[in-house]
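Researcher: I've got a protein sequence and the SMILES for flavin-adenine dinucleotide. Could you write out the 3D structure of the bound complex as structure tokens? I'd like something to compare against our soaking experiments later this week.
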Amino acid sequence: MRFLLDAEQRAFAGSLDAMLTAADTPSVVRDWSRGEHGSGRALWSRVAEAGVFALAVPAAHAGLGPLPVELAVGFVELGRHAVPGPLAETVAAAALLAELADPGPAERLLPALLSGEASATLALDGSYALDGDAATVRLALTAGGLRLAPGHGPVRACLDPARRLTPLTAGGELLSTAPPVEHALTWARLATAAQALGVGLTLLDRTVAHVRRRTQFGVPVGSFQAVKHRLADARTALEFARPLLFGAALTMAPADVAAAKVTACEAAYATARAALQLHGAIGYTAEYDLSLWLARARALRTAWGGPAECRAAVLSGRAARP
Amino acid sequence: MDLTHSPADEAFRAEVRAWLGAHVPSVPLPSLETEEGFAAHRAWEAELAADRWSVVSWPAAYGGRDADIVRWLVFEEEYYAAGAPGRVTQNGINLLAPSLFEHGTPRQRARVLPSMATGEVVWAQAWSEPEAGSDLASLTSRAVRAEGGWLLSGQKTWSSRAAFADRAFGLFRSDPDTPKPHQGLTYLMFGLRAPGVTVRPIGRLDGKPAFAEIFLDEVFVPDEDVIGEPGQGWRIAMSTAGDERGLRLRSPGRFLAAADRLFALWRSRDSPAWAADRVADALIGARAYQLFAYAHASRLLDGGSIGPEASLNKVFWSEYDIALHETALDLLGQEGETADTDWSEGYVFSLAGPIYAGTNEIQRDIVAERLLGLPKGRR
Ligand SMILES: Cc1cc2nc3c(=O)[nH]c(=O)nc-3n(C[C@H](O)[C@H](O)[C@H](O)COP(=O)(O)OP(=O)(O)OC[C@H]3O[C@@H](n4cnc5c(N)ncnc54)[C@H](O)[C@@H]3O)c2cc1C
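Model: Sure. Here is the predicted complex with flavin-adenine dinucleotide in place.
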């Protein structure tokens, strides 16, 4: 039992952090929100170069994985920097393709996903696909199986402008009649939970910095106890989401991953509410970068299974134990 | 990063489980906050100690098993999963013993620890005073120098289990003329039945005498009952307060067992949908706390320390404990109103969690100032 990240895992986080800090992700997010994908694609290929999309894919398919702990480490950083795009979706798509009984689709599609040349979006029957306009591989999980969607419908504007939802066009090539849906869902949820934790951590950091700087009544607002306690609660919630995330990455049991997803997303969302409140009016503006993380926290909460769905998964996981 | 226990730790788990399986009373003991229950729990401590299970993390020389922090967590998981009784000796074991291991003399350890391990001497914590709660350093009880020792006078209060306990440890002002309130305090041990001591039990919310006030009138304490250096009491006491808030006071095992019992209760009531999210949160919270503890344990084994992060812990488990018990009482409906069930006892106990061991407001200040780096405000 040694439940701590090792030096290599910490170094991986550190190098991603450095790369993303240098990349000025806020301006990339704003481009992406306008449907200008150039800067996002450039960033995407650097994320791929760092190996992030290969972590869910076994070596048999030229991946590095499965390495769910490293994936969680990486996605915390992607969330901390608000990197836009179908990140969790590409990971889930890659994990799914690698598990299909017929290796054909994986051989055809995975190399470009792993190298970052291509990105994927993945939608469950009837739901929207994230960034269907930007993704090059559009996978639809329908009752009849897994299909390669031929195109996408209109792009819908979202509360998080950087998340662009589209329906997928019906039909297309049938890749599998019995795809391992739960496997894909588990990876998508793990990645989303990690991203949410990262989003929450940045919201907290930025808010702490703000309340130390901003003075009212002659003192920093961060010296008021009501302000402090709200942030202490945010820190507590995030710190207890972290071990659930890494615990889930170690077991990859669907109930554990669901627990991590709901906890990380609730913690990030509560932190977002505190961040908005404690920034005052400036926090309510689209101009100020805080908005990028605020919007993301809200969206991740519903992505890949909202709170009720994840809690139900936890209960059925417990019921299955003796 | 891994969560699997070594074969040796698993063997330890099996040994704990087997022993508990053979010894845990089949009928729960009466509440330890009553005279009868206190006696029954003391007897249970003797039974634990007879096979060296009462203080597993202590050195063997004092009746322990030299268990490291991971083994202690394993022990606690098994202990609560088996439905074993609450620990009447916990204040001594969690607060006084660590102080003695760190600051006591070998003679003090030899004199105090063995009888603590068997429950023969049960210890009470005498820190709080009527006018010194959160601002503990403002305490005014005195220790005045006397031939070969000290004379203690003043009043302590809210002392858990002091109504039936044997001895107490607490802070006294030995130098009234220091510039700062936390200077000039001395940490001492005294007998609750010594001449000059009056103990008055106080009923908690449900009327049970769970704590007491202690009046001291020139109570003589020999020098050998001073812990550490006279005047250094604050530093010594605070080094163990972290232990109290950190892992030791409330082990994850306790909440894992409680969450499992809540889940069983929910299912036995046909799994009502209105409580589903709350039951799920109880399961998730127990797991989160367990994994948080494992992360802490790993850091400690690597030579790190807990520090102000203990305050995160304290806020988390105390709020969690109340939510869990509220859910149980809501599920029980009218039955939840009745006293003397495990759930109602647990509920009343949980309500005090955010108050004792440093209130949650104080803990949130510590998190904000020491972990987040926010400026100190007016206190
Ligand atoms: C069940 C139980 C068992 C206990 N057992 C023991 C024991 O064995 N030994 C012992 O010595 N003591 C014990 N205590 C006492 C406990 O340590 C104190 O109750 C605690 O330190 C708080 O002090 P107080 O009750 O005087 O509240 P106060 O300090 O008067 O506080 C009242 C309220 O004001 C808030 N407050 C105070 N100062 C601040 C501040 N600066 N910022 C924000 N809010 C503030 C507090 O958080 C609290 O909500 C026990 C208490 C309980 C309930």
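Model: The mean pLDDT of chain A is 97. Residues 200 and 268 of chain A are 4 Å apart (CA to CA).
Researcher: Great, I'll pass this along to the crystallography team.
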